[in-house]
Design brief:
By secondary structure, the chain is an alpha+beta fold. It contains 10 helices and 13 strands. Helices cover about 30% and strands about 20% of the residues.
Length: about 375
Amino acid sequence: MKRVAVDGSMSEPMDYASAGVDIDLEGSAVASLIGALTTSVRPPGTPGAPVDLPGGFGGLIEFGENLLALATDGVGSKLQIATSLKQWGGVGIDCMAMNVNDLLCVGAEPIAFVDYVAVPKPDPAVHAALGASLAEACRQARVTLAGGETASLPGIVTELDLSGTALGWLPKGEAITGEHLAEGDVLIGLPSSGIHSNGYSLVRRIVEHSGADYTQPAPFEATHPHRDVVQWQEGVPTLGEVVLNPTRIYCDPVVDLLQAARGDASFDIAAIHGICHITGGGLSNLLRLHPTLGWNIDTPLPVLPEFVWLQQTGGVENREMYRTFNMGMGMVLAVESEAAPAVLAWLQDRMTGVAMVGHVTDEGHGVKHAVEGVEFSHY
């Protein structure tokens, strides 16, 4: 067990793998799964036929003159903190965000969602809280909750689990795949609302070993100009309130941006070459968008205070932080350099904290960051 120093920090560095999540192993497992899958039984050109999509942020299928996009994901171990504190008000938003944000990355507008709730035993109060949270999530994402499933699985699950699937659409021929990325494309960063819904195995381990109390005021500056903490009680935000702050849903403004680019805006949809949701794997997610080009982040968005506290308290190395967490930037758009000023101005009118953070390079397939030691050569 790691020893805790007098100041509350860890005497030895902590990482995601030691908390039980090995990103490299997960990548290998997913590759094995994909390698074992067979091709679709739907003939090309018919509804439901697959559309090749590098990067894997969402799946595309044919549907007449349009394409349908699908994404599925869950809340993860953030639910364990929510359950321990009996605060489920944000988890429906987390579930929605992890799905619809992926759909945005292929240029799709989310339109519908279905949820899956698994519990050891039904609890009307918990289900009511989940329903209210999902209703708010639908409002923020502008989607229809088209159905869902609640399963009571004693002996299989020991506590609440929540996941879902989102459906989106886009005009055929307008998918954003990253294939048109080019050297000199400008990277525009959209700020996160907090930790979002990744890295919580490490978060829980750091909090546990530090001795911090989720119900007490956060041991760092909990306010930030680019996000609001959703509070359950009056006074200074607690550590639990900050840690459970819901994942930002980027439908507003990204859906409106895509619609403007397909309409009468001063920039065209073709100028948006790539969109990346910074989730598990952190900045290495950028490498999914192109097989050879690189990413240089030389003016990153500000790091949120909770990440600073987690890193200092857990003694986590820089590279590990940027591979596990979003570090304050939840989404990145890669835009043709000529159109970048107009796209940036459009976004800044609708969201605070949006800024140019770097550019695409042809200096090899990798991510380079302004912070020393933060480089990635594979996802």
